[in-house]
User: What shape does this take?
Amino acid sequence: MIKPETLLHPTQAGLYCPAGDFYVDPIRPVERALITHGHSDHARPGHGKVLATRQTLDIMRIRCGAEFCGSEQAIDFGERLVLNGVGISFHPAGHVLGSAQVAVEKDGMRIVVSGDYKRSTDPTCAPFEPVACDVFITEATFGLPVFHHPDPTDEIARLLTSLGQFPQRSHLVGAYALGKAQRVISLLRRSGYDRPIYIHGALSKLCAYYESQGIDLGDLRPATDDEQDAQGFRGAVIVGPPSAFNDRWARRFADPLSVFASGWMMVRQRAKQRGVELPLVISDHCDWPELTATITELKPGQVWVTHGREEALVRWCELQGIAARPLHLVGYEDEGD
Ligand SMILES: [Zn+2]
Assistant: This one.
């Protein structure tokens, strides 16, 4: 059997498959790239050929422009392609709309690159599908035993409670533009919140795209400067990318209450530093129980850990009798935590 390192190994540009002559989520422009999902740390513009799911290709075009690559090829979940003798298939990762794990296979050796993934329920994307493999490559963004993410529905209930308690205050919800923002809106709708939700301009195209893919986000309106004075936003929910809340845009809302939806909100210090009044622990990554349960379920021969808190997860695997190593990949800053 071929050695896994021969099939796929880390390089300066990212994970590389010499036999297939392609990279997975390269951080530098390359001739051929397989892209797991649309977050900017994984999906960079400037590659020659890009292979990804239809939704990821659409999202890349929305975010990077029509010229985001030389040529594109869409692959369906479960479809199998052969590139220079290497079998390739994409499987749902449950991270954001279109997100995929990439399975790479040659001479009986199968490696699964999971990209970013999560196991908790998310109505805005296809759920993670376990794929049996010899080597499982996992992220470890929240790879420490202290990280336990609560039920996102309970976190949204805390936002609804705050809206009831402070009906005069605008609730400014910071959420990453791809995935988190749509998930928060969808969770609000599923919890029965049917008033208009105001969105920052940076979210409008992605929200419209999610809607075009059958994800109902309800009555969304632009939170623009001119349409409404500050009084009009009293008691309203306004969703925007976290960066928008530091600039002039945010200062126009009436008595704003700062909310931030992120897995990092488990760390009180981070919420404090950002001046977040209502931290919501809603993550698009696995927490520690999800990471370890996934590895237990898959029983891979080896685990490679790409980014995040690599050491703790590597140690945990070794204690379970599973060979593991950190890949020390750089350039992945978990845009959508
Ligand atoms: Zn991501």
Helices lie at 4-7, 54-64, 152-165, 180-190, 201-212, 268-273, 288-298, 310-319. The radius of gyration is 20 Å. Residues 152-280 form a domain with the Rossmann fold fold (CATH 3.40.50). The chain is about 25% helix and 25% strand.
